[in-house]
Amino acid sequence: MSTISRRRLIALCRKESYQIVRDPSSILIAFVLPVILLFIFGYGINLDTNRVRIGLVVEDSGVEAQRFADVLTGSPYLEVHTGHSRSAMQDQLQNGSVRGMVVLGSDFSAKVQQAQTHQTQDQAQIQLLTDGAEPNTANFLSSYLQGSLQIWLTQRASDRGLPDLAITSLEPRYWFNPTTVSRNYLVPGSISVIMTVIGALLTSLVVAREWERGTMEALLSTSVTRSELLLSKIIPYYMLGMIAMSLCVLVATVLMGVPLRGSYWMLFIVSSLFLGSSLGLGLLLSTVTRNQFVAAQGALVAAFLPATMLSGFVFEIASMPLPVRAISYLIPARYFVSALQTIFQAGDIWPVLLLNTGFLLLSALFWLGLTALKTARRLDGN
Hints:
Elements: H1 6-22, H2 24-44, E1 52-58, H3 63-73, E2 78-83, H4 86-94, E3 100-104, H5 108-116, E4 126-130, H6 135-159, H7 183-203, H8 206-213, H9 215-220, H10 226-255, H11 264-289, H12 292-309, H13 322-328, H14 332-346, H15 350-374
Parallel strand pairs: 1-2, 1-3
Antiparallel strand pairs: 3-4
Helix pairs in contact: 1-10, 2-7, 2-10, 3-6, 7-10, 7-11, 7-12, 7-14, 8-11, 10-11, 11-12, 11-14, 11-15, 14-15
């Protein structure tokens, strides 16, 4: 390997820094776009099931039916729309105005009283109709209605001085995310997507821009070595990426209230390794294509989409088909998402962090090494 001249390297890095400052698109992508994406992912994407619109048809004016209806309407998780006609409420279910409907029949209170005095074997029926087009919401409504029924039975027994027949009780405790707010794990995951955009998309334009403008020929005619050329493209964008990473962490913790329970130095290590992998991939695309448009499209397909779809950021990897799950092991963002969510929510859990850090290191070495092999030092591509 040729000797690296410190003087030439500093001069090349300064030249690249001037180009970044003079290019408004680079500044926008590095500092404005991350904040916008962070707010979109943090507040625009919400996986919490809150205020689900549900219809309630009470055909019984009895006390038991009204008390059960009060349990539903008092829930902070449901937005209950009451009605007296099944057909009208079914129309709302069909047009999407409500996601489900609960029907208390005209004999609900009577059957409850008869079942209590053992005058009948028939149980009082509660009908639930849900929109199966949204399975997650439908399952939530079914589970929540069963929980509401248990609450109503407990309150009813307490009001009448009857013994509580429940011999067990559930006391949930949520580790790492006690408030169960989806933003607390979506925001750390979204940072990996943002860093992918900064690392791969920005650097995918660097070398291609030099070839399109004709400045690469002039650069190759000098005594600059391949290592100096490669490092001069990496160092400025690494600094830019780490500044953007710091900005994302600041916005996430201060403005969004996302807890950061791990150490900053571990966050710095995993971010540096992932950024090295993204920079290497972006430079490789730029070096091979020598066209800004093609390189940018390649960065979106090879980096941004896998980081969004196959990293576990939004979709659970364990729920993916086996072939897709196998492909996800090749995606660096998978390990970065896992490391970030661990650092933010749980802290420095070493078995998890060491495994992810090892894979990120291998990924960074692979992409940077491949880029070094493909970086041309002559006009004929050698």
